[in-house]
Specification:
2 helices; 81 residues; four-stranded antiparallel sheet; alpha+beta; Ketohydroxyglutarate aldolase
Length: 81
C-alpha cells in the first residue's frame, strides 16, 4: 500500500539555481511528485510521502524540505468571528 502524499516545498541552493530542472528531476527520481518549479526563486513544490524527507534532502542542490501549511479563510460574506 502506498503512503499518502503530503505537500512539500523544496529550497534549492544558490549554486544550483541554473540547474533547477536537473534538481527537480532528481527529486522526481527520489519519489516526489513535482507540481511547480519556481526557478527564479529556487523553490520546487509538490507532494511526497511523509517518509521521503531524508531522501529528498540528500539530492544535490537541496538545502531544505519543508511541509506546506494549509490556510483556510472563511468566505467574504461570512460573519466576523
Amino acid at each position: 500500500m502506498a503512503l499518502p502524499l503530503t505537500p512539500v516545498s523544496v529550497t534549492v541552493d544558490d549554486g544550483h539555481l541554473a540547474q533547477v530542472e536537473t534538481v527537480a528531476q532528481a527529486l522526481r527520481d527520489s519519489g516526489m511528485e513535482v507540481e511547480r518549479v519556481l526557478g527564479s526563486v529556487g523553490v520546487i513544490t509538490g507532494r511526497a510521502p511523509a517518509d521521503a524527507r531524508r531522501s529528498l534532502l540528500a539530492v544535490e542542490g537541496v538545502t531544505s524540505v519543508d511541509g506546506q501549511l494549509q490556510v483556510s479563510l472563511p468566505p467574504p460574506d461570512a460573519p466576523v468571528q
